């Protein structure tokens, strides 16, 4: 088995990637999504997530797995140290949350770095992915078979406008960033919006 991970600046791009992974035959059990909720876009009190695209917000991590509603209808709300509030679904979220998986606004035991490295992501990349979510991004991760399925999943994520992880690492470093710090204060909604504007005109990586 292999793990393929992509960071996205917008939830819309990540949602497209998840849909394409599912259409390619990758089981919902093997797809995970973690999206920043620093700005409170995902309202668990009403169940509205992006105007109803994920109507089950608050249902709990993994509540959708094997269900009929599709991956994005099972988003649950949780908090990740150093990242702050996120909405998440799937195996990576459950790994990050540990025994607290699915608990609304529950602290994620072990944090996102441990969950990523346990799944095979290098520590260096895991720090960039975690920082990306902290700054308002969305992470999509798929467990796939080595070989053709791995290549297909990587192509799907890249074609969905994933972030070039090396370029983003360099961009963060230019601002003095060194590594993700789970003891740091999460980004404020204003800081997240500033980050999103910064990368809004980003040219998609070449395929």
UniProtKB/TrEMBL annotation:
Pfam families: YflT
Top-rank taxon: Bacteria
Chain spans, region Disordered: 175-207
Domain General stress protein 17M-like: 6-72
Name of the protein: General stress protein 17M-like domain-containing protein
Source species: Aminobacter aganoensis
């Amino acid at each position: 088995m292999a793990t393929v991970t992509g960071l996205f600046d917008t939830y819309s791009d990540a949602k497209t990637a998840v849909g394409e992974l599912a259409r390619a035959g990758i089981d919902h059990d093997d797809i995970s999504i973690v999206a920043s909720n620093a700005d409170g876009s995902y309202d668990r009190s009403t169940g509205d997530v992006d105007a109803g695209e994920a109507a089950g917000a608050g249902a709990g991590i993994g509540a959708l797995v094997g269900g009929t509603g599709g991956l994005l209808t099972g988003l649950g709300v949780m908090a990740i140290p150093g990242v702050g509030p996120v909405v998440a679904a799937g195996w990576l979220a459950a790994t990050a949350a540990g025994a607290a998986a699915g608990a609304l606004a529950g602290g994620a035991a072990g944090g996102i770095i441990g969950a990523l490295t346990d799944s095979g992501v290098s520590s260096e990349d895991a720090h960039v992915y975690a920082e990306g979510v902290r700054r308002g991004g969305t992470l999509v991760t798929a467990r796939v078979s080595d070989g053709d399925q791995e290549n297909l999943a990587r192509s799907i994520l890249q074609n969905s406008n994933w972030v070039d992880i090396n370029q983003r690492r360099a961009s963060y470093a230019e601002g003095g960033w060194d590594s993700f710090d789970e003891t740091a204060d999460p980004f404020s909604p204003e800081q997240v919006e500033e980050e999103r504007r910064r990368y809004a005109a980003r040219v998609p990586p070449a395929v």
